[in-house]
Structures are given as structure tokens and as C-alpha cells.
Amino acid sequence: MKKEDLITKWLNNEQLTKHESEAFEQLNAYDSYIKISETAKKFSAPDYDVESNQEKLKEQLSKRKSPAAKTSFPKILFRIAAIFVIGIGLYFSYFKDYDTTINTIASEKSTHTLPDESKIRLNALSSITYDDKNWDSERKVLLKGEAYFNVAKGKKFDVHTSLGVVSVVGTRFNIKQREDIFEVVCYEGVVSVTVEGQTKFLRAGDALELISNEIIEKKITDKEPKWYYNKSYFYKTPFARVLKEFEWQYGVTVKTKNIDPSIFFTGNFVHSDIQTALKSITIPMRLKYMIDNKTVTLYKE
């Protein structure tokens, strides 16, 4: 199949054969196409009254006396229409087939079994979306937040986040994607991670972090993520990240007074009791805390 036909088939969201998929992944611009796809998934088509907005645009342009403004109206309208059509097309191409979404709220974790018996354990304030009806032809999950995956062997299994893509056949791994943080830890087998235009292969005991556009590779000895057992652990971690994790687990807002958020913290906190958790992160730092409804304030005496 010609390169142009292959790209067209992919853009139309048509199922590629194994040979076509391999050929598509060998294209020089493969990473660029994937980035375009991921950006499109975040598009949310707004309600747009074309006739009403066209009339408003005409009124604004008619107030201008410049002939150039009048002659440019068709071009402007054409651009608006083009953006609108492209947006609608992207929306329906990438969202129409995803019929199942699982969410967790603050302080909640849940385990979900996929159609192929793969299991996903969701951390607090996280969600997954996938196509249940066509799962046999495409094992693909969209993730927001953090999740631990135990993937059944079979066809290629893809996890897409706004910051990177993780692909496997059968393995155990954890993905964390919150705001500008992206972290992948492999506990069994091999996973490929595509991020920042690069593809990295992680084996059991390997971990990768993307923080502020910097890729950091490291080793781990754990057999499963600690949060799986209702605890968050940190080793020489900026205190600001510790507080963010605390907010995600307890659904609160944390404020600080006279505290340097860049100082490093080593320790842990539980997910089951906010008072115990607060003592775990304040006593080692010689801090005090106050709780006012859903706001926690940390301060120095």
C-alpha cells in the first residue's frame, strides 16, 4: 500500500492489518502523527451557531470603512468554516467509539477488569476510557491520573495519556500522568514508552519520569506500586509534589505559609486517615497544620 493511502486509512480510523501497522510505524513522521492524534483527543467540540456568529461578524466588519476589510470577509468566513469542520471531524473520529469510562473520586481506588481479563487498578482522582465493543480488534485505553496495569497476553495493548504513550503485549506496569508529571514503572515483561518524540524500552525494574520536559530513567526494587496498598512513598521528593499527591488522595486544597516548596522530603503518608497522614508529612518537617473544611494550611511556628 502506498504511503499516502496508508496515512489516509489511519486518519479515517480504519483498522490496519498487521503488515500495514508495521509499515505505518516505520514512517519517518510516525511520532508526529501520534502527537497529532493525542492532541485531537483533547479537543472538545463547542456548540457553535454559524448563522448567528456570521451575522455578528458581518456587523463588525461593516463598521469598518477600509475596503480591504470588506474584501477580506469571504476569506475570514472560509477560515472559520474550515476550523469548524476540522474540529467536528476530529471530535467524531476520535471519540465516537469509546463507550466505556471508569472514574474514581478523591480517597477512592477501584479495580476494573477489561474484556480480555486484563486488570486495571485506578488510583484516586483518575479515569480510564476504552472501546468495549471493539476491544478484540484494538486494545487501547485512554488514561487520566494514575493506574496499575496487569495486562493479559494477546495483541498489542496501548495506554494513551496527554504526555506519552505506553505499549505492551503482556506485562505489569504503573502509569502516572498528573498535570506535567508523567511516570512509567515496569514490574514485569517489557513496555515501550513514547514521549517527547523518543521511544524508550523498559524492562522489569526500570522506571521513567518526565518532569518539566526532562526525561529521567531510574531503577526500582518494588514488586508493585506502594499506592496499591493505600500509602504514598517519597524519596528526596520536592515538598510541592508531596503536597500535590496529598491533595489528590484526600480531595483537599493545601496552602502553605513561610515554607519553601522546593525542599526535599523522604517519608510516606497513609490514604485512610487525614490526621495521621498530616502528622506523617509535618512532624519530620517541623511544621504545624490547620484544617478548615476542605482547606489544609501548613505553617511554621
TrEMBL record:
The chain crosses the membrane at residues 76-95. Residues 101-191 form the FecR protein domain. InterPro entries: FecR (IPR006860), FecR_C (IPR032508), Ferrdict_sens_TM (IPR012373). Residues 233-298 form the Protein FecR C-terminal domain. Keywords: Membrane, Transmembrane, Transmembrane helix. It comes from the Bacteria. Gene3D superfamilies: 2.60.120.1440, 3.55.50.30. This is FecR family protein. The lineage of its organism: Bacteria, Pseudomonadati, Bacteroidota, Flavobacteriia, Flavobacteriales.
